[in-house]
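Write out this protein's structure.
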Amino acid sequence: MILGTVIFIMSVSAAAVYGYYFSLQTPEKVVFDALSKAVHAEAVQFTATTPSHATFKGEIKDGNVRLDGALPVSSATNPAKGEVRLIGESLYAKSDMLDSVAMDQIGENLPPSYRVIMSSLLAGYNGKWIEFPVSQLATNASVGTMRCSQGLQEILRNDQAAVQELKNIYTAHPFLIISKKADMTYLISIEDTKIKEFRTALGKTSFFRSVISCHDGTLPLIEPASKHMTLELTIDTARTLRTLAIIDSETQKQVYIVDFSFTESAPINPPSTSESFESIQKKAAVQIIRSR
């Protein structure tokens, strides 16, 4: 998930350059001040949009990320709508055409008689919330990156030794290229050689070992895909981050945009009713056994 990568980049960048000397009015200083305020704010509200017309709103508070999103869901026969909420250790999802979408994905792997059973069962959950344990989805890059980013913020807030490791390595290998594009608009890109040197040095630290276990061997900030992205930040005169856009460095097209607010808003809560995916699996197993 690009949103998780954005949070990761913001967190690590702010920690890495903390205490790094910049003149008061340089682009580097302005960007650092804004990122630092965002990472250390008590509460951050944001909305995000993607080219695929998915929209998310979210909040980061006390190191925890909550998301509420709407997105199109692919179906071979009909377009479908989907919604997701990420709250704590649970991911809630629903679709108005769950049976069609799910059978497009798994139908070919089921015997014909099982397809009828599964399609009928899932049709009863169209438009209803299903709860998935995040622990079972952590191998998915989207969910895994978001979950790890939550833990990363806690490390950077509370582990001064880890922060110092980042500072020392960044001082030796400053990989961020920061420039001013226009009034209140700044660009961040990654210098290829420096990021490789940073990655090598970071790999020897205890900080890296504690975070890498959560990312299944990769870190969004330092993987090759990151060097093809440019971040475009809008920062107001109070050095508060207002928008962050991800630009494809090759096409120069905007692929993601996030709007930030630092005031409290209505909380994102779990759905009032939902059923666990485990419960649905058990129902399916019972019906399949009875059909034999």
